[in-house]
Write a structure and sequence with these properties.
The protein is an alpha+beta fold. The protein folds into 4 domains: about 90 residues, 2-Layer Sandwich (Uridine Diphospho-n-acetylenolpyruvylglucosamine Reductase, domain 2); about 120 residues, Uridine Diphospho-n-acetylenolpyruvylglucosamine Reductase, domain 3, CATH 3.30.465.10; about 110 residues, 2-Layer Sandwich (Alpha-Beta Plaits); about 90 residues, Alpha-Beta Plaits. The chain contains 16 helices and 17 strands. The structure holds flavin-adenine dinucleotide, D-malate and zinc ion. Flavin-adenine dinucleotide binds next to β3, α5 and β10.
Length: about 475
């Protein structure tokens, strides 16, 4: 999907725009941005691959204001792009041209922290890091953790069903959501916030909004389940010269390390970029082709369980174990700083996919040659959350609007029985390939939901589904 070249011009938010005037009346004039420079950071995505000028950026401060903004845009038949931290990687958080961007950043208050039930109620615009800071005095934290934690909002994380590094222990964002308040296109607001342990009164609307990427409604508040902060943590970085051994050790660790909370895979190409970009020293004296990072956490002595399980691990060529916070962070940096390091050398095609575990090795071995066949400049950088077979295929060396690498990788994934959208969402980046892994009946059911909740198709149109097929 080509990034539309940005033309720096003001939105049509000039004095004569009746919609802009109405929005100003709802949220106050200061919270409607029409000046091109003021809008700029809301209009380009994190990857720099997607974005276009908006009509205006609106920053409501409450659920009521969100509902009124949506109703006004619905009446005017103007599309709305909900936006949280704008860390999304599939182009769904930025305009395609002329939409109103609805930023949730001001809806970020803590409403309730209940250490007894280990649940919190907070505004959708609160970042994951801010939530964790508020929960930390109670020995609690959000079960989903990801490298974008300082900017990603809990509303955006719910809207994308974010995954991250602790999925193998705590599940994805859906598993953390205990309640939700959501505003729909017609200005109605549904609140399912009671938090009672069992409630099956009708359809699970919050469950459907999770992962809907702003196409069904705007999440304004969430009740989230929290998990304990486990004080003893240990991180092991392992080097391999065989992919089979790396995958084998990582997957065995899931069964053998009771306190395992992360299992990550990365490769020499990515590590080289990280070292160059960050200036970090190499983890080992020798360069190895494959790396696995494991983290265990428990109330006491996470290190011994991890070390015991690794004593006889086959094929480990070098290893480092860290328990102190600074050392753990250094080992994590080799993995977590992949995203920024890749973006420092180009605009990657980011293909977040998942494979059945039994096909993971075959996928990794086939994807490089497949891309090289398309271009001698192809530079694939792979890393990911190996326990769920989630591989982030980042491809450099192609023009931004060249869809060949996307097409080739996603078709390979589908042919191996995998998912073309593991944790980042479909966005606009993968919409064209939905049919690879979703049947016509499946897509028709999704369209029926969309038609029902958003008959005017104003909510993030073009994300996941296109109004008119084709
Ligand atoms: P945005 O980017 O603002 O929006 C994302 C989507 O959600 C858009 O479609 C938008 O319209 C919609 N949306 C946002 N807020 C709302 C709302 N309140 N109501 C309805 N719809 C809304 N993702 C992972 O899953 N796992 C990772 O490990 C991970 N690591 C990352 C590391 C880096 C360095 C970066 C830059 C990104 C990473 N991401 C990861 C991607 C991204 O952080 C997640 O998708 C995150 O959930 C997006 O949150 P956000 O608030 O930034 O949402
Ligand atoms: C990660 O796991 O680091 C992310 O999902 C970000 C990315 O894929 O670049
Ligand atoms: Zn990820």
């Amino acid at each position: 999907m080509a990034r539309r070249r940005r033309r720096r011009r003001a939105g049509s938010g000039v004095a004569g725009d009746p919609l802009v005037a109405r929005l100003r009346g709802i949220v106050g004039p200061v919270q409607v941005l029409t000046d091109a420079e003021m809008r700029a950071s809301y209009e380009t995505d994190w990857t720099r691959r997607f974005g276009a000028p908006s009509r205006a950026v609106v920053r409501p401060g409450s659920a009521d204001e969100v509902a009124s903004v949506l109703a006004a845009c619905n009446e005017a038949r103007v599309a709305v792009v909900p936006q949280g931290g704008n860390t999304g990687l599939v182009g769904g958080s930025v305009p395609r041209g002329g939409e109103v961007v609805l930023s949730t950043k001001r809806i970020a208050a803590l409403d309730e922290m209940d250490p007894v039930t280990a649940q919190v109620i907070a505004g959708a615009g609160m970042t994951a890091a801010a939530l964790n800071e508020l929960a930390s005095p109670y020995g609690l934290r959000l079960g989903v953790d990801l490298a974008s934690r300082d900017s990603a909002t809990i509303g955006g994380m719910a809207a994308t069903n974010a995954g991250g590094i602790n999925v193998l222990r705590y599940g994805m964002m859906r598993a953390q959501v205990g309640g939700m308040e959501v505003a729909f296109a017609d200005g109605s607001v549904v609140s399912r916030m009671s938090g009672v342990g069992r409630d099956n009164t009708g359809y699970d609307l919050p469950g459907m909004i999770v992962g809907s990427e702003g196409t069904l409604g705007v999440v304004t508040a969430l009740r989230l389940r929290l998990v304990p902060v486990l004080p003893s943590r240990a991180v092991a970085l392992l080097a391999f010269d065989s992919l089979e051994a790396a995958i084998g050790v990582a997957l065995n660790a899931r069964n053998e390390v009771a306190d395992l909370q992360a299992a990550e895979l990365f490769f020499a190409t990515g590590l080289e970029l990280v070292l160059k970009h960050t200036g970090l020293a190499a983890p080992f004296t020798e360069r190895w082709p494959f790396y696995v990072l494991l983290e265990a956490a428990s109330r006491m002595d996470a290190a011994s369980g991890l070390a015991d399980a690794l004593v006889n691990a086959a094929g480990v060529r070098d290893s480092a174990l860290a328990t102190e916070a600074r050392d753990r962070m250094r080992l994590w940096a080799y993995r977590e700083r992949h995203t920024e390091s890749i973006s420092s050398v180009g605009v990657p095609h980011k293909l977040d996919v998942a494979l059945p575990l039994g096909r993971l090795r075959e996928f990794v071995e086939r994807v490089g040659p497949l891309l090289s066949d398309l271009s001698e400049n192809a530079m694939p950088i792979l890393f990911g959350h190996i326990a769920e077979g989630n591989v982030h295929v980042n491809v450099l060396g192609f023009e931004e609007d060249d869809e060949r690498p996307d097409d080739a990788v996603l078709r390979l994934v589908a042919s191996l029985g995998g998912s073309i959208s593991a944790e980042h969402g479909v966005g606009v980046a993968k919409r064209k390939w939905l049919e690879l892994t979703r049947s016509a009946a499946d897509i028709a059911a999704m369209r029926a939901v969309k038609d029902g909740l958003d008959p005017g198709w104003i909510m993030n149109p073009g994300v996941i589904l296109q109004r008119h097929a084709g």
